[in-house]
């Protein structure tokens, strides 16, 4: 069975929840938990219409909560300039179609994720055989079919820039999905890791509720390529982030974060990879063929600027 890497609660990087349910991480980053997943709001409070960016789009049914949080944080009727995605799994795109239409915004994602975002392809089926708890056992019920925002889709540029987010770079971190990306801001060493690694035992319903801080690899029941996932964690650990916000669990900061992330990278095969499972015995190589031009951070995520 996969092991856990505890993180001291003192390493938490978030403040208490505000009236709208969001937690501040930095002056221009807040997140909101939607049942099992986090949504991020990038932009200073009061940024106004088109003055901010939504990162990922929650689970099905989260549209109203996202719109309410946006209005509270950025101003009544404030729409984002874009929606940016780490990847297209069901719990990250649940409100995507509705929000993209209502807000009339572009949706930015890695080209390897586009088939799952324009209606062409479904993801591989989840694997309940990885163990770890109730969420894993229920994973066959999770939807894998694609959403369709094809008319609004934009490709993240090959140079690693993120057009709606000056000062940020995207980093190719495949394994959990073919086009999974993380986002990095060198100025304050801020990492938004998506599901490349997470800070809760996502397979366990109890852990999801309690949210005790632990360092884990990507959610096991939806990860088809463990070799690529391990390389992605190694690349992110090399960044030495000061703060990391993941798709599941609380954001963490400082030496405790870095120590736990390095431990995960070093012992990934023992800590993260399940002993048994569909994609342990027959992996799908999601990241092996990503051209270098489309992977500026895998592992060439340089700490001193663009490659």
UniProtKB/TrEMBL annotation:
Domain called Metallo-beta-lactamase: residue spans: 36-248
Region (Disordered): 1-22
SMART domains according to UniProt: Lactamase_B
Matching InterPro entries: Metallo-B-lactamas, NDM-1-like, RibonucZ/Hydroxyglut_hydro
SUPFAM superfamilies (UniProt xref): Metallo-hydrolase/oxidoreductase
Amino acid composition bias (Low complexity), ranges on this chain: 9-21
Identification of the protein by name: Metallo-hydrolase YflN
Gene: yflN
